[in-house]
Design a protein that fits this description.
By secondary structure, this protein is an alpha+beta fold. Helices cover 20% and strands 28% of the residues. It has one domain. A hairpin with a 6-residue loop joins strand 1 and strand 2.
Length: 100
Amino acid sequence: MHPRIYVVDVPIHNTTDPARRGLHVFTGVADSPAAALRRAHEVYEAALAAHTAGLEIPDKQPDSWGARGLRPGWHMDWAAAKAGLWHNPVSWTSLSDFAL
């Protein structure tokens, strides 16, 4: 399959206040949703390891994946994560509600 840009949405909640919920979003190039989920998880784990060791969080990898917005104190629910193709909302190929 040809590599394309994927988005991975991972549900998160605050560990001290579980009512505070949200999504952590990753984007990058992959050849399938499964590969996108795997890469998102890998870059998150690398960022967490660097943060825990007191090091700077790595920049984006050569394949465009990265995890710059690390949120300590928030639990990532990887079992509920979803991956799909990313659609640019400002692309000229997107549908719009107005006529030009």
